[in-house]
Amino acid sequence: MKLSSTNALSLVPGRNCWRVEQARRVGICVDGECYFGMLRQSLIKAQRFIAIAAWDIHSQLELVRPAPGDGWPTRLGALLLRLLELRPELEIFILLWDYAPIYALEREPLFFGDAPWQRDAEQRHPRLHFILDDAHPLLASQHQKLAIIDGALAWCGGFDISQWRWDTEAHLADEPRRCDPDGDPYPPFHDLQMLVDGDAAMALLELFAERWERAGGGAPPVLHSVAGAPAEMTSQPAVERRTGSEGSDEAPNNETIDAWPAQLKPLLRDQPIGIARTLPAFNGRPEVRESEQLYLDMIASARELIYIENQYLTSRSVVAALQQRLQQPEGPLILIILPRETGHWLEQHTMDLIRARLLKTLRDQDQYGRLQVYYPDLPALGDECLMVHAKLMIVDDRVLRLGSSNLSNRSMGLDSECDLCLIGDTEAARAEIQRLRRRLLAMFLSTDADSLAAIEADWLSQHKTGNDAREGLRLRPLAPSLDPEWDRQIPDERLIDPDRPLSPDWVGDVVVGDEHQPHARWRALLGVGLVCLFLVFAALWRWTSVGDWIEPRQLAEAARALTHSVWGLPVTLAVFVLASLAAIPVTLLILVATLMFAPLPGALIALLGSCLAAAAGYQIGHFTGAAAAEKYLGGRLGDLRQRLSKRGISTIVVLRIVPVAPFAILNLLAGAIQVRFRDYLIGTLIGMAPAVMAMALFSQGLVELLGRADMRSLALLLGGILIGAGLFWLGRHLLRK
Fold it and tell me: Which of 69, 565, 669, 711 is packed most tightly, with the most Cβ within 10 A?
């Protein structure tokens, strides 16, 4: 990606945006109390259709707290059903990311939930259309967050209509209304959402309709008929509805209804809106990286101030762009607000470590003292912290950009994203953008925008973070310490936070590196030889009587039925652990898991099973002692003991890549000699992950090759073999070192 010059930013379709469309009105909701309340008002006014694209959604979310007593339900699922009952012409479309099993415990249960869209097709309301979107590459996600009403209004931003998102702008530590559907409290949460109407809303409807069709939902006539109509036919304001005591809300005399929430004052009017996307390369569709280019162009065009609120800061390209501006003698002040921690333990030891690594790089280049990075601190929270989930960038109080894309690698080229951007070319527009920025900054400092405006210049120049004597929210410098040991153990961040779909060549370049290219010839020969061997077996299976013995696809499909059972995951993990303890090779267990389930779920289940089996074997070895391990290993015990005791996590990673000892035996030995348990599990997770993914590619290719011989299945098979061979060579190289 190329940076533009420091001239004023322009929105250029095909470069940094998809389209530029006019919005009659632009509104901004700060935090969940505003967004969910205004969204509910928009939903209630829907007449023809509601279209929702989400990363997550929860039917039991209380949209307003307390209930306003207007006769309409306050929970999302109940509200949608009521609307369908009262409006015979209304249709509802919900597109939800077909998420990875790792998020299963954070989502509404698939089998015991109350969501009306999770019911069987025959039990679901006939005008409630629901689809799980899996039309994306391995490890990618559908991350766009859209809610579109009749093609007249469209919400876009960082909010999922889900649990753990509702909060007030005050972000109180003891807010009693901030609880999930089970009544359990959760920490404060900050996010933003933009509302547009007119041609901009129609364009977002086209984006949704295309996504719906690509995900397998067909071409719903109501969506395409509205998307093809002139914007003025769907977005002209008209009379307000008459709302009765029983929640009736019908349009008098068939007049068009203005669905804009009455309580939301527009930020701007008659404003061009740039729509930027991230779409990964998939099924012959080229990649789209408009969101990334828009970030780079905004950074390059800044003259005075770059204001950022984001959940992550792990994008290589964005950090490189910021670094370039910091190196210039005359450049903008860069003010970044991030959460203190991005999530639970795993994220803290992956994404947060990558963030710390990149922040150190930025600070090393900040020779002119223009970088300020803060996190919101609320002392009353104790160990918990406020989650900054917003994806906001404001440049020079002139350019406002808000959407779904994080400052992470995956948001630049792997996940599907959608951002909106506007440029204030008038004094009035720039004043409104500045007022919004000051409002947000004042919120983090527990003051008001007017007070902040009076001291803003001094505050920014002196790096003040607020009065520590106050008990409210304040900003503190984010200066995470970078543990050298952890920094050495974390692999290339592109394996944890990839910026493009995984491919054998790309993974090989990242894992093996350019310095190992002289050895590529023998690895390729080995891979070709193994592929030829498997092709022989496949030919025998397909065109001889061997194929009549057993049909792998049928077995795989029968085993995959476990995924539809609530007991599927625990049973699979239990069998995996027990089989490992019985010394069945872990490679075989991983292969079975990836054959039973779809590639990504199977890989994640196999990785989780490997970690659980490692923990179980470790504990057995810990209690039985070294004598038992000696019995199995004989003379190799001393050598392995020496290897394990040398370098902790890094050694475990290498030994997981190169099977110096059987998986089960290594687990026993590690427990027997009391390797640090934390290091052992982390090393197992890091070391097993690439091999498990290679096995997932291999198994998927094998099943497809046996079912139908085509280039895709052959490529998957070859990719899995080459990655596995590359990993094995790399491990042997590291082991010798």
Answer: 669
Instruction: Give me the pLDDT at residue 104, please.
Output: 66
Which residue type sits at 198?
Answer: G
Residues 6+ apart with CB under 8 A from 136: 142, 280, 282, 415, 416
Using the predicted structure, report yes or no on whether residue 43 has a pLDDT greater than 60: yes
**305-335 per-position pLDDT tens digit:** 999 999 999 999 999 999 999 999 999 999 9
Cα 199 to Cα 618: distance, rounded to the nearest angstrom: 61
Q: Say how far apart CA 237 and CA 235 lie, in whole Å.
A: 6
Report the amino acid identity of residue 86.
L
d(CA 11, CA 20): 7
Does the structure show a pLDDT above 60 at 549?
Answer: no
pLDDT (0 to 100) of residue 243: 42
Between CA 509 and CA 513 the distance in angstroms is 5
Question: 731 with 688: CB under 8 angstroms?
Answer: no
Mean pLDDT confidence for 675-698: 77
In this prediction, residue 45 has a pLDDT band, given cuts at 50, 70 and 90, of very high
DSSP string, 41-106: HHHHT-SSEEEEEES-B-TT-BSSSS---SSS-SBHHHHHHHHHHH-TT-EEEEEEE---GGGGGG
Cα–Cα distance for residue pair 39/177, rounded to 1 Å: 18
How far apart, in whole angstroms, are the C-alpha atoms of residue 457 and residue 90? 52
Could you tell me which of 502, 686, 702, 715 has the C-alpha nearest to residue 591?
A: 702
- Looking at the chain, the whole-number percentage of residues with pLDDT higher than 90 is 48
pLDDT one-digit tens code per residue, 386-401: 999 999 999 999 999 9
Query: What is residue 241's predicted lDDT score, i.e. its pLDDT?
Result: 42
Would you tell me how many other CB atoms lie within 10 Å of the CB of residue 485?
11
Q: Would you say 358 and 331 are in contact if contact means Cβ atoms under 8 Å apart? A: no
Rg (CA), the chain: 27
Compute the average pLDDT of residues 378-385: 91
Sign of the dihedral through C-alpha 83, 84, 90, 94? positive
Q: Which residues contact 283 (CB under 8 A, 6 or more apart)?
A: 135
Q: Read off the amino acid at residue 381.
A: L
Q: Going from the N-terminus, what domains does the chain have, and what CATH number goes with each?
A: 19-237+260-268 (3.30.870.10), 273-487 (3.30.870.10), 502-736 (no CATH)
480-499 pLDDT tens trace: 776 665 565 566 666 778 89
